[in-house]
Structure formats: structure tokens, C-alpha cells
Amino acid sequence: MRDYDEVTAFLGEWGPFQRLIFFLLSASIIPNGFTGLSSVFLIATPEHRCRVPDAANLSSAWRNHTVPLRLRDGREVPHSCRRYRLATIANFSALGLEPGRDVDLGQLEQESCLDGWEFSQDVYLSTIVTEWNLVCEDDWKAPLTISLFFVGVLLGSFISGQLSDRFGRKNVLFVTMGMQTGFSFLQIFSKNFEMFVVLFVLVGMGQISNYVAAFVLGMAIRLEDRNSWQVSSYNILYVRSVHILCIWLHGAATVCLLHPRLADAAGGADDAGGAMRGTLVVHP
After folding, report:
1. Which CATH number does the domain housing residue 231 bear?
2. pTM for the complete prediction?
3. Which of 16, 34, 113, 273 is the most buried if burial means most Cβ atoms within 10 Å?
4. What is the dihedral angle through the alpha carbons of 175, 177, 180, 185, rounded to the nearest 10 degrees?
5. 61, 88, 119 - which closes a domain
């Protein structure tokens, strides 16, 4: 029975064409790192406090004391989700009473942020949190965004292999790259939080699907003793895209786990050539 290397010999030697294809496949996954980390910036929650309408008839002293203070990390900071009842402090302002001197602020009635929030722009100009006020009672929605993104990654992991076997990995690679790019672009025009997370799930599905397809195609262009280098370089490009320094230890067991043994999947070495041709057609 012929071994795997003998069956895949029709792919040719490690020449300029194979190096070009491998480089392009590796480069195609670089945006995946950006997508994976984009949620860190998209769901960031800036410092915020209750908004006071400009039309509120308040003196400058009362306008500076509309939000109660609370302890955080041993220091007093403005409350993010509460303010003093606006009608009450407007009456005090009209009477000429001063906060802290004539009025005990600790005894004032409080209310929620009925007029929205003011967000600091010291770090972030805009995030989905500032866009749709995902704070206070809705603060659970921001971390849910990441969870739903990885739900998409999980779903893509389940279906990408079956789709690749049915339609070919090259087709799946191009379709899912377009899927990831297109839905990422559509997120810009999201009208609400629900639309944003649905698109993010689809982005996650496209991301993992094109990664797996590109990985298997890249490993199909191989020679003896090059698998460990190819696996390492492929993952280094992904790590580089997320700006993380990692040391990858690829032992023989890891290579065996990741290696696409298409001969076994095809039911024997005699059918492996057909299976490989369905995966990748190379014309050196």
C-alpha cells in the first residue's frame, strides 16, 4: 500500500508556485486576528454619568452637583447610573439655595438617568456601548456580544468541514472570506444592538471557516520534514495579526493531530489522490 507522501506526489515539489500559494493562504488569515480582537474596542465602556438637559433651569453650582458620589477603589467618583431628582434640585436652585451649604445632599431623593448618559471621550470616541447606551440595567449586553461572536465561531467549526468536503475547500475559503468581510462592513450600518450581534455571529462563522479551509489547503502543499515549519509559520502570522508574542511548541504529536490525513478519510491510499484533487488543484 502506498504511503501518504507517495499518493500526494502529484502536487509537485516545494517550488516558487507552492511558496506563493502558501504565502497567500497565510496572509488571508491575518484579518482574522483583527476581527477576533475588535470586540475589545467595540464593547469598551467609557466613564459615564447621567445627562442633565441643557434646558434644565439650574445654577452652575447645582449643575455641578446633579450626580451623587460613590466610593470606588477607595475614592469618591460620580455615580454612573443615578442622579438627584431633577425637579427637586431645580426648585432649590430657583430658591437660591446652595448645595452642601443650605441643602444636605445625602438626604436628597435620587432617580435613574432619565435623559441618557454623558460618556467620556478621553479614550474612545464611540463604541456600541455609547451608541446604544449599554450601561446600568443594560450593561449585560456588552459582554454578551463577545459570547455570541464565539457562538458563531463554534457553529462555523461544526459546519465548515462538511461544507468543504461537499463543495471544495477553495470554494468555501473564498465564500467565507467574502462572508466575513461583507458582514463586518454591514455592522457599520447596524440600526440597533440586535442587528449588530446577529451580524457578529455571522462574522464569527465566516472567520473560523476561512481559517480552517486555508489551514488545510496550506498543509496540503507540503514536502517531507516541512510540516512543523508550515504549521508554526502559519500560526505565527495569525499571532502577529493580534500583536501577541507567543512561543509555539510543535511536537510530533501536535503535527499528527493537525495533519490532514486525507488518505484515511478517503478510505484508503488508492482513493487518496482523488480526495486530494478535490481539496486542492495545483498546476506548477
Report:
1. 1.20.1250.20
2. 0.71
3. 113
4. -100
5. 119
